[in-house]
Amino acid sequence: MPLSPTTTARLDHVLATGQRDHRLPSVAAGLVRGGELVWSGAVGTSDGRADGPPVDSDTQFRMGSITKTIVAVAVMRLRDEGLIDLTDRFGTHVPGSALDDVTIEQLLSHAGGVQAETESGWWERTPGGDWDHLVGSGVGTRFRSGRRFHYSNTGYAALGRLLEVVRERPWFDVVREELLEPLGMRRTTPRPSGPAAQGLAVHPFADVLLHEPEHDGGAMAPAGQLWTTVEDLARWAALLGGRTESLLAESTLAEMVEPHHVVDEPGQPWNGAHGLGWQVWNDGGARTAGHGGSMPGFLAMQRVHLDAAGGDGPPGQAGDGVVLLTNTTASVALKTLPKQLLRTLRELELPEVTPWVAAGTSEVLELAGTWHWGSATETAKFVGEHLVLGTPGAGRGSRFERVGSGVDNWVGLDGYYTGEPLQVVRRADGSVSHLDLATFRFTRTPYDPHGDVPGGVDERGWH
User: Fold this and answer.
1) Ranges for the Beta-lactamase-related domain (predicted)?
2) Could you report the per-residue pLDDT of 197-243, keeping only the tens digit for each?
3) Half-sphere exposure of 36 toward its Cβ, with a 13 Å CA cutoff?
4) CB-based burial, 314-325: b 16+ in 10 Å, e otherwise
């Protein structure tokens, strides 16, 4: 559904104002809704000159660390094929480095204690060597594996090497063949190709520019090598928003965007975490995921709402996302401009509302209504295909999805009962006796003596 002219004009104005106020040589951005690029805009020139080539949605910029998310998805595909396990030690597949005892999951979530950067040379500005050269330089760990979140570029170099060893071909060939080509991301390349922006640094105290070098990072390339366009990055945002095109199981994507390790900044409230490759944020109750990117001369951002809730902001559709690319080394624009664009979309373009229809079945009525866990009271109701016990997000409230046919077996989806079984226990005549939820008994009356309550019920009853 096309955006209204009013929304488009407002978005264009937000982007143009951001380019001017943040002194960005050029900036290109796009918004995704329903898995489609619904708006794109670009301001400035690829070389920063007033008369230079104007950028557009097909201009390549370096995406920096957003590269890591593509590597992570390729690694998770290995797991889903049974070729690796996330608990495997790195050295099981790629032996001979100081990272042998770090698990693959810890590398994906930056929890392996692996050092952030290389041992010598600013790898983001100088050509890199191969894997053996990186290992020989003495790359190792700074913390005990599993202790804490510690962002690591070298950890993703290791994951790129893992792809190469297991797939028996270069890491970029793996991601190109398995992910980029199927998604139509043909303008995402390891080096600039076709129309591309020049990497630039803007002087902090004067309106002058400095060219940044472009190079091949070698073994470090999986940490931030790739170049892309707004159109291509929007396709990657659509995958994060749920349009996986059968390249990744929905359950695997959900696993990847779970908060695995909190990003703990001293003196700051916890509102960010890291999943398996993806950054995850909680902004006033709005859950988003994505990744930022930074390489000398370039900044990038991809951010996608995981649900329709807006938190403190306006509601929208699950999968609403923003991508932004700019050719400057340093700017606070990345913290504000993507959020402004995404908020504008959600404020001005109300989400479509799917009409409610009575699509339930009468078989669930024997489970609906009031239940008691001991002397506590909970209400069971059905919302769509889910059994909802209590209020999800409050106490031990949770949604449950059906396991198999019938209504007797369920599994928890939220909070305390995530993954835990709920079984409907019936009497000999087929009527419902009680619910067994991970050994807790829910009965129709408090401490029903006929409900097989563990520990029994005092024979004197209530008195």
Assistant:
1) 12-331
2) 999 999 999 999 999 999 999 999 999 999 999 999 999 999 999 99
3) 6
4) bbbbbbbbbbbb
**What is the residue-wise DSSP string for 69-89?**
HHHHHHHHHHHHTTS--TTSB
Residue located via tokens 């359950």: 251
- Say if CB 148 and CB 111 are below 8 A apart: yes
Residue entry with tokens 């007033």: 50
Alpha carbon distance 45, 27 (integer Å): 8
As a whole number of angstroms, the distance between CA 114 and CA 344 comes to 39
Instruction: Specify the number of domains making up the chain.
Output: 1
pLDDT the model gives residue 426: 95
Is residue 1 scored above 80 in pLDDT? no
Domain annotation covers residue 274: no
Token couple for 121? 């040379």
Helices (H), 366-422: none
pLDDT at position 380 is: 96
Q: 3-class SS at 374?
A: coil
431 domain residue, yes or no: yes
For residue 221, give the 3-state DSSP assignment: helix
Average pLDDT value for residue range 294-312: 93
pLDDT in tens, 80-125: 999 999 999 999 999 999 999 999 999 999 999 999 999 878 888 9
Confidence of residue 267 (pLDDT cuts 50, 70, 90): confident
Q: Is residue 420 part of a domain?
A: yes
Rounded Cα–Cα distance for residues 212 and 202 (Å): 10
Report the C-alpha gap between 308 and 319 in whole angstroms. 8
Decide if 398 is inside a domain: yes
Cα 417-108-126 angle, rounded to 5 deg: 160
The residue with tokens 């100088």 is 126
**Residue 416: domain span:** 362-443
Q: Taking the chain, what is the end-to-end CA distance rounded to the nearest angstrom?
A: 64
- Please calculate the CA angle 289-292-298 and round it to the nearest 5 degrees: 155
Alpha carbon distance 159, 336 (integer Å): 31
